[in-house]
Hints:
Layout: E1 10-19, H1 22-39, E2 48-52, E3 56-63, H2 66-80, H3 82-88, H4 92-104, E4 112-114, E5 123-124, H5 127-138, E6 150-158, E7 160-164, E8 173-178, E9 181-187, H6 192-201, E10 205-215, E11 221-223, E12 229-233, H7 242-252, H8 260-263
Parallel strand pairs: 9-12
Antiparallel strand pairs: 1-3, 1-4, 2-3, 4-5, 6-10, 7-8, 8-9, 10-11, 10-12
Helix pairs in contact: 1-2, 1-4, 2-3, 4-5
Amino acid sequence: MQRVSGQPKLSLVLRYEHAATPARVAKTALFVERVLLAADPHLPPDCVTMIVSNYNTDVGIRAWTPAGVAAIARSKRALANPGLEVSRDPDARRMVFEIAGAAHEMLEFGAYITTPRAKRPIATLDQSFVDNLTEISERVTDNSRQDKPMAGATQIYSPIYRVGRLDENSDTQARIRLNDKACDVRVARCAVADAFDVAKTGNNVPISIDCLWRRNDDGVMTIDPRRTIITRIDATWRPVSGAEFLTVIHSAIPNVFDNIDDIIPGDDA
């Protein structure tokens, strides 16, 4: 996992005027985890750490990887201005809804979130904040389609044209065929080695992906490359001919055909 160089600075700070007991710290850690996973459901472990004060709870949040930096940045935008974030990306409604649920569990503390040098909080975790996020997450904008994007997993067949990173702080990406064109998508750490191996062969292989389907202007559901991550690559798969397939069936069930040679003609046919 690529880490940022040096000691990263604090990105967000969560504060409330209660002693940092184990139970409160555990609840705060769960809130932070829910917010970050709402921003990036595929966020790898150990990307973000917390620094907790001894008495009045003061929790600093620090990103150690590019994925952690991106997740905190998206969380910060959603916390500071959830309406703007949803207007930019309608899919952010799900993230805002998750943050609302996480914030509801923190109401008893009167907590607020700020940045290290900010003069005022970017969000106060009170009932009005939770109600606002819930309303925004359920709002359907005038320019949005009734067909909501659908998240899920599927398997495609594609070569891997190339694998790499834009720079040392970027996630690994692979260029595959998606929606009948070449697209760059993220690769999960567990699939990076197979991606490099398959890219050397040029073979068409089964690729498992987590993705988001959207309806395009023509009304066709397509996969959004920006919200796609490769989770598994079957590097051992190879296509078989019809003759090979029938031979395998005949070997497994000898009596399935009276005479396999009648189905698979020889050279003299």
